[in-house]
Design a protein that fits this description.
The structure holds two protein chains of two kinds. Chain A is globular. In chain A, helix 7 crosses helix 10. Chain A has a two-stranded antiparallel sheet with strand order 1-2. A two-stranded antiparallel sheet of chain A has the order 3-4. By secondary structure, chain A is mainly alpha-helical. Chain A is 68% helix and 6% strand. By secondary structure, chain B is mostly helical. Chain B has a domain of 342 residues. In chain B, the strands form three sheets. A two-stranded antiparallel ribbon of chain B has the order 1-2. Chain B has a two-stranded antiparallel sheet with strand order 3-4. In chain B, strands 5-6 form a two-stranded antiparallel ribbon. The longest helix of chain B has 42 residues. Classes of the chains: A mainly alpha, B mainly alpha. Chains A and B meet through helix 3, helix 4, helix 5, strand 2 and helix 12 of A and helix 2, helix 3, strand 2 and helix 17 of B.
């Protein structure tokens, strides 16, 4: 172990941050595609209009989705118990997300291959489900993380989950789901307003303004709700360098406890401020037809909102509502010291390369997309 | 106790989703490289027909790729969903290659595939060619890391059990990467993918040639497929996956099962061509070829291969020491400062997994009876006869494809491409055969590893999530239904694309200068072969 130049505590913190980077990366990059998918049947009404939307996100959505795949892989590699508990616990919710996501690659590819109204309209609704449902359920999942999930572990680290799918659909969790849908729709609309022309851009603007306003209200409501909700607070001393053992701590439920971090670490207030500010600016940008401003602002808003959820529960990843001591934190659910270090090296090498080539691809595919510009490409969707 | 129905349904679900996924992966591996080759020829010669070919096969590639992505996303999450104890128990090692696959491979492939389809008029010729090659490379890197992960399940090197965290932890990452089983698997699997791609292109080109349509494109494609296919067929057979099997005890069990070899044979062991189950499931009637078995499996004349019965006896011994390791582990979990227990555990931990085999029969395995130990030892034998037959199907197809492509290669080099109608028909109707071989191969690898999910470390039944039967019935039936519907749609769309054939005018700036270019080239024999 002495050969690893970073201590265990630092590596755990770095990986907590990296996980945030990947999940926020998906929320921003993949979120725009989920948002456009959700808007597809509404912002675009004719086949020609819908093709504009699909071909706008078509060239890059696959790469964007890898942020999610990589997020899943990184949780597996860096925090295996978290991967094991969350994915098996939220089993049917995960199923619903996967089924919805499965509709996307085939929807994009298959839709344009047959010129038939019913065929295309069926895939359009498939793509709507593929955008709306994952955004909603992922938000519901975050809501349930804040509420705590009903699970406990035995001394062999075997997981016992005692809830079911329908218990996930509580009012607060649904509120979180709607925040999630609202923010990706705002983001998708900002993209459409910036990259399309005419009636589609106009429709996207008005949907985006409403979605942005709704997100602001719901996010604020969520904040008020949380201040009355019980948060989990660790009452025992944690050794951030110890081998993992989630059972080795005691946890208490404290009303409003999820807001404690903001008094302990005042800088964390920046996250909700960015969330509100970003979304408000996105609404302004859309209303004032400031295209790039709206898109950058909605990205910032998503960054702020997702960070707020992550920072509020720090150092928890997944609190347990049934046996609070079993809750998973970044200190007691990580991989070994060596795995975290190796994975950091690999990530530090590849992540900048990924950002570079993704940037290059986006640059190649830049510019407005219109019905006329589609005719030239035999591969267009 | 563990609900074996949940375990069985979880296994069915993993098998079904993985086998569906692997209908599409081989074609992605094979077609991406052949498209890159065709586009390279286009960039070097400037002949439009090669671009036309790249685009046509690219359309089919895209339909297939969409299915690969749709079925692949499930794989990344299913370990946690259905195999949560596995995910905890070996995630420290197994998660890393999956995450690296995302970082190094899938990101590359998924980012550039968009440009492959949408970048034709936005990139220079060379720029687009680079994109195509990067897509193909991404697909192949992806296979590399997935097979490093799978190879570790077959031969878990570079890791040690940590009693404090109750899981396997990494000790030597390089050993995991350069695991001989993983390397053999990688070469074998991508070769099989290349072969399927070559068969696919050859079959559809044959169809065009039978119908006399798109003859120039079909001839050129057939030449590329015949050469690429011959190389792949040779590599898939010669660099067979089983070369890594001798590494460990259970891999030896897998070989013994593949050969239905119950008794240890002297080196070099004979190879059983066909056999019929007789008494106690052991081979009754059989035809054997001397020496060949030892050659195939050990690549030597002197290494002895143990039979199933001997391996079961050895497993029984390891189960007994596994009980000692398990008891010591219990003591450590109860009191972390128990140095005596730690010393015992350090000595016996490699057999802990064998001890866990008893968990199928009782919770307190320290008190296992002789009968239970014997049953657990017998459990280390995978299903012999399904393995025996699928192995022969796979091998038979491998040799068939060497002959098939050797003939095609010879004929192509003589310029006899569209002269033999029966051969063209044969090439067309045998299109599904590579998939039979490939799915058989995965069946052998995974079914042959049973009862282990990680060989010698973690029994499969002990690794599943504590889900309900209802959860699994819902998810399994939904996946199978959805995948089947999508598969039918995919085949329907591919048939449509093939029937429509390559488009004559792809881009607004296309001219029909191709014929002119060809006419300007003297009809030397070399050009004739390429159908110029």
């Amino acid at each position: 172990m002495s050969t690893i130049p970073l201590d265990y505590e630092t590596l755990r913190l770095i990986w907590w941050l990296l996980l945030g980077v990947l999940l926020i990366g998906f929320a921003i990059m993949g979120g725009r595609d989920l948002g456009v998918g959700t808007l597809l049947p509404f912002a675009a009404r004719t086949d020609a209009e819908r093709r504009v939307l699909l071909n706008l996100i078509g060239p890059t959505w696959e790469g964007n989705q890898v942020w999610l795949i990589l997020g899943g892989g990184a949780i597996f590699a860096a925090f295996p118990p978290l991967y094991a508990v969350s994915f098996s616990g939220f089993y049917l919710a995960m199923m619903v997300i996967l089924v919805a996501l499965i509709l996307r690659p085939v929807g994009f590819k298959f839709r344009g291959k047959v010129e038939d109204k019913r065929w295309r309209s069926a895939w359009d609704w498939g793509l709507f489900i593929g955008g709306f449902v994952p955004a909603l359920i992922m938000g519901v999942a975050v809501g349930n993380v804040l509420l705590g999930a009903p699970f406990h572990l035995d001394h062999t680290m075997r997981i016992f989950y005692t809830g079911n799918f329908f218990q996930l659909l509580t009012p607060f969790a649904l509120l979180a789901g709607l925040v999630s849908v609202g923010m990706v729709v705002t983001h998708g609309a900002a993209l459409l307003a910036g990259r399309t022309e005419g009636i589609i851009a106009e429709r996207a603007r008005s949907y985006g303004i409403w979605a942005g306003l709704a997100t602001l209200v719901l996010f604020a409501l969520g904040g008020v709700w949380i201040s009355f909700m019980s948060g989990h607070v660790i009452t025992s001393v944690i050794d951030p360098n110890a081998p993992i053992n989630p059972l080795n701590k005691s946890v208490e439920l404290v009303p409003g406890g999820w807001l404690n971090n903001y008094s302990t670490y005042p800088w964390m207030i920046a996250a909700p401020v960015l969330g509100f500010g970003g979304m408000a600016l996105a609404v302004f940008g859309l209303a004032a037809r400031r295209k790039w401003l709206a898109y950058l602002a909605s990205s910032t808003g998503i960054f702020g909102i997702v960070s707020t959820a992550g920072l509020s529960i720090f150092p928890f990843f997944l609190p347990s509502s049934s046996v609070p001591n079993s809750g998973l934190t970044l200190w007691d659910s990580s991989s070994s010291h060596m795995t975290l270090f190796i994975m950091l090296l690999v990530t530090a090498f590849f992540l900048p390369i990924i950002v570079m080539y993704t940037g290059w691809v986006f640059r190649v595919m830049r510019g407005p997309v219109t019905s006329d510009s589609l005719g030239k490409n035999p591969n267009a969707y | 106790m563990i609900d074996m129905l949940v375990v069985d349904l979880s296994r069915w679900q993993f098998a079904a989703t993985a086998m569906y996924h692997f209908i599409f992966v081989p074609l992605t591996l094979g077609l991406s490289f052949m498209m890159a080759i065709m586009e390279s020829v286009y960039v070097m010669t400037g002949r439009q027909i090669w671009r036309k070919a790249t685009l046509f096969w690219g359309t089919l590639f895209g339909i297939n790729f969409a299915m690969g992505v749709a079925t692949g996303i499930v794989m990344e999450f299913q370990f946690g969903m259905n195999w949560s104890y596995y995910s905890h128990y070996v995630g420290d090692i197994f998660g890393a290659p999956l995450a690296i696959e995302g970082l190094m491979a899938f990101f590359l492939e998924a980012t550039f595939i968009g440009l492959f389809f949408f970048g034709w008029d936005r990139l220079s010729k060379v720029g687009h060619l680079v994109v195509t090659w990067l897509t193909a490379l991404g697909a192949n890197f992806s296979a590399l890391w997935i097979l490093i992960a799978n190879g570790w399940m077959q031969n878990p090197v570079g890791a040690k059990f940590n009693p404090d965290t109750m899981r396997m932890e990494i000790t030597d990452f390089m050993a995991v990467i350069f695991n001989p089983v993983a390397q053999a698997k990688f070469v074998h699997t991508v070769s099989a993918g290349y072969l399927s791609g070559a068969v696919f292109i050859l079959a559809i080109s044959s169809f065009f040639l039978i119908k006399g349509r798109h003859v120039e494109l079909a001839k050129r494609s057939a030449v590329v497929a015949a050469s690429f296919g011959l190389a792949s067929a040779l590599s898939v057979v010669v660099l067979g996956d089983e070369s890594g099997y001798v590494a460990t005890e259970h891999q030896k069990m897998k070989i013994a099962a593949l050969e239905a070899m119950y008794h240890t044979e002297e080196a070099p062991a004979p190879w059983t061509l066909i056999a019929w189950p007789g008494e106690n499931g052991e081979p009754g009637f059989h035809i054997s070829v001397p020496w060949v078995g030892g050659l195939i499996t050990t690549r030597s004349f002197t290494e002895e291969l143990p039979g199933i019965n001997e391996l079961v006896e050895r497993a029984e011994d390891r189960i007994r020491t596994g009980i000692i390791a398990y008891s010591a582990l219990q003591d450590i979990r109860a009191d972390g400062s128990n140095e005596e227990a730690r010393a015992i555990f350090d000595e016996y931990w490699p057999d802990l997994g064998y001890g866990l085999l008893l968990k199928k029969y009782r919770v307190d395995i320290e008190n296992a009876t002789e009968a239970e130990i014997a049953m657990a030892a017998q459990d280390t034998v995978p299903g012999v006869w399904p393995l025996f037959w699928t192995f022969r199907i796979m091998m038979g197809l491998g040799f068939f494809y060497i002959a098939f492509f050797a003939m095609w290669f010879y004929r192509a080099s003589r310029g006899w491409i569209d002269t033999n109608k029966p051969l063209l028909w044969f090439s067309f109707v045998t299109l599904p055969l590579p998939w039979v071989a490939i799915e058989s191969g995965w069946f052998i690898a995974e079914f042959g590893r049973q009862p282990w999910v990680v060989e010698g470390v973690l029994p499969t039944f002990y690794a599943a999530s504590g889900l309900t039967v209802l959860d699994l019935v819902l998810s399994l039936s939904f996946f199978v239904l959805l995948y089947t519907v999508l598969l039918i749609i995919m085949v329907f769309l591919m048939v449509r694309v093939i029937k429509a054939g390559p488009k004559d005018k792809l881009f607004a700036d296309d001219d029909d200068a191709d014929d002119f270019v060809m006419a300007a080239i003297p009809a030397t024999p070399a050009n004739k072969e390429l159908g110029s």
